[in-house]
């Protein structure tokens, strides 16, 4: 690379020529990839430039450019100009130029005399290959023999002077003339001699001669060794042969590690051959898995396997995708076979799969499941009674009913007392929208907790920490979560850590940290991952990375994936941390969820081989009808990953899945037509699709949340706040914390319902306590704006403090303002600036707003001494980060200038602010007729639990 940089800065003739030759021969990709990639376009440009500078290098420059014109390197073929350049070069004594002229003219029967004359000149100048070409043109056997002998002698003499090129030419001569293994051996010997003198292309031919199975020289081990030597020296063709040797199984001894290494290097330079071979390997693997899957399934379908336990085991293989291509449909068919043979276990698995896979819930399937499960439950089967209860709770085959579901659970409980059933009953009551029914869950959770159920401990701790169903008891909640974590319940670690934060106090963060540290010390393999996620939620990305690395090196797939996601997100570059993504491919195992996560991650970096691997996994998962796989594959088509962007194909894939009952596909189609970015906007079609989902799953939280937003914000339909409320209520009751928060805001502002500050407070507190951190800021607003009650600055401060500690930027900003103004807390300018600066460093929509607040603080002296230099620095940061208020303030200053250029800049900033819906900018520009009034645009940002909670 240093040589390249040095040559790139030279403008003298010899320097330009040397640069052209280097570019033509190829430049190593990077320090890790040895392959040398030619840049013919730039090489031709440099050779042309070298010709414009007179000097002793001119003849060599004409030779180089002539070769490129003859080979169409870096541009179009130009034989006439090439011949003129080569003839000029030959006239100065360039032997190779004379040979190329003769060799080119020899193809034209009318120019044979000129061809011979140039070849004879080349031969006299010592170019041995010219003698071989003259021999080929001769009609006399004696003359041909003499010319060949002369050429061989000439090259041997040159080789005796350590001329590597002459050894290569002798190898070429014997290889092309070879009629026997003895002649091929002579060629190999000369290639070896030339290679020993440093002729790199000779190494490739040493490998090539030993890789031909039909000859006596065939030596697959040595062939691969020399191919690797040549590839390490930059030879792309050698790397291709290594890849081909593995992909085509042509007798070469190429293992998977060598294939993986060289195919990746080739893919890095966008080598189409390598990508094709890799793709075919993936397809072959997929076809082989498909054949195995088909063969196993066919054996069962034909009755060759009759044992029920074996049929159920194979069904589980298809259900989980272990060893076969996962297929819920096939798993269901196998379970049904067991059901038809009166198998209780088959009926239980059949029902469980219908619960997990809504797309499989035909009326016939649901009816069969209920019939057999009720029969078994009435005969004392606990598992059958539990599954019937689960189906009843979801309204499968009967109207959804908490009471009826509990009846089935209690039937199971009468057979045998089980903490599993206690937890089921508690869950059923907690899903009710009636607080009185919800409170019934507490007794069952207490009973299950007394029986040492860690799942019950976790749920009861949440109930006690929220304080909505029973009096709040944070101390007991901590005890329960501690006990659950000590029993290995990893998900209780985050709950316990977050509870310490909710409790607050100077030791809250340290207590949270200690919670994870203890679990890590006990050897819990997932504890470092949970600890890292906790630290990330508080913006401590760098502190999280060592824990993820430790877990990944210990064999944790989730840690490897999280590490890649963290590093790539932090850098803004999907290729950062790619080594951890590659590690994840080795750790993924057969778990469908892990493979799905891996497939989506593999599509992100700019690495065609990883993209192909992810695409292949998704195709397999689509074949197996894995939930979400169709959407991910459609997204890959839309984003143009692996293949060119193909929105039409994406829609086809989604529609096919929709017709097969895939609810996720219906949702994605609806979202596409609602957003109108990739396909023409069609709100009516979107609503039709959303309602189609609700006809199958009336309580689907995501769809109800989307519909609430559509009607509440008037997206494609007339705005109707009242119509949105029932959808928010259903989504909230179904467990969506985002919907719970939105419903709190509805009652807070009286949007579609009468204002109810108490109800708003309850909903927002529940959402915040369950991890939806933006709700802490909403609670502070409820107490600081005097909505329906007296202003309570202290409460507002406490709520903002909780949100700020959780990393919520809006809360950080309000906390900073509170410290600066002394609102709900004694004035503390240093603390105020600290929180505003921390908010300004936070990525996301609120960071630029924090920068603007810092500008105001220093500009106006709000709680601090005025400092116009600092103020202007923050104003510029806020403006450049996209804050419309900062753009507006900048515009006002510039518009007041006497300088017309600055006035124009001011107008530009005001228009930018207007485009971001800044009201004052819009009013001024409209009044001055300097810009159209900004059309009100309804935001289409989809509400989700994930966006704010992760």
Automatic annotation (TrEMBL):
SUPFAM superfamilies documented for this protein: HCP-like (SSF81901)
Signal peptide segment: none
Which InterPro entries does this one have? Sel1-like (IPR006597), Sel1_AlgK (IPR050767), TPR-like_helical_dom_sf (IPR011990)
Pfam families noted in UniProt: Sel1
Coiled-coil annotation reads: none
Protein name listed in UniProt: Uncharacterized protein
What organism does the record attribute this protein to?
A: Pararhizobium antarcticum
The lineage, from the top, is:
Bacteria, Pseudomonadati, Pseudomonadota, Alphaproteobacteria, Hyphomicrobiales
